[in-house]
Amino acid sequence: MEDLLIVTTGGTIDKIYFDDKSDYQIGDPQIGMILRELGVTFRFNVIPILRKDSLHITDEDRELIRATIAAQPSRHVLVTHGTDSMVATGKVLKALTGKTIVMTGALSPARFRGSDAEFNIGCAIGAVQSLPEGVYIAMNGRVWNPDKVRKNVEANRFEPA
């Protein structure tokens, strides 16, 4: 794999909570720190383009994500994204060709003990290296086609659509 392009958009994976108000903000992208701590042996480039909860991502934001990825020469792309609208963004990214794009996120912030963030990132990195060109979602230990998956909000997991 040549250098991995990582595009960050915010979402729970990058949330920072403030206990006194039960409020949160989207903080700096966590993925670079996670990968450095895990000692990965490949080069990666992080491009933070949004800091939004995915419920607030608009069609214009999705076009920005698509255009950012299209403008980069990397064929292997990892996108961190909030889980609530990840599927909708994945469907927009399917317009891109010549790239393997894997989207992932977390159901609890990366800074929280027991977060699924590291596991999902690891799964996504394995997927982006081994899958043919296309767009995929890596969540809950599975790799999905965006056209065939949905987030089950009540069960807090991804499942077949």
What are the SSEs and their pairings?
Elements: E1 4-10, E2 15-18, E3 23-26, H1 31-38, E4 44-52, H2 59-71, E5 76-80, H3 86-93, E6 100-104, H4 117-130, E7 134-139, E8 142-144, E9 149-152, E10 157-160
Stated plainly, the CATH topology is called Rossmann fold
Please, what is the average pLDDT?
Answer: 93
CATH architecture classification name: 3-Layer(aba) Sandwich
Measured between the Cα atoms of the first and last residue, the distance is 31 Å
CATH class: Alpha Beta
Low-confidence stretches: none
Described by strand count, sense and barrel closure, the largest sheet is: 6 strands, mixed
- SSE-based structural type: alpha/beta
Number of strands: 10
Q: Which value, in Å, is the CA radius of gyration?
A: 14 Å
Strand content: 25-35%
* Element-level helix/strand string: EEEHEHEHEHEEEE
What is the assigned CATH homologous superfamily? Answer: L-asparaginase, N-terminal domain
Strand order of the largest sheet: 4-1-5-6-7-8
Inertia-based shape: globular
Share of helix, binned: 25-40%
Number of domains: 1
Put simply, the count of helices is: 4
What would you note in describing this structure?
The chain has 161 residues and is an alpha/beta fold. It is built from 4 helices and 10 strands, in the order E-E-E-H-E-H-E-H-E-H-E-E-E-E. The chain has helices at 31-38, 59-71, 86-93, 117-130, and strands spanning 4-10, 15-18, 23-26, 44-52, 76-80, 100-104, 134-139, 142-144, 149-152, 157-160. The strands form 3 sheets. Strands 4-1-5-6-7-8 form a 6-stranded mixed beta sheet, sandwiched between helices. The protein has a two-stranded antiparallel ribbon with strand order 2-3. A two-stranded antiparallel sheet has the order 9-10. The longest helix is centred in the last third of the chain and has 14 residues, at 117-130. The protein has a single domain, classed as Rossmann fold (3-Layer(aba) Sandwich).
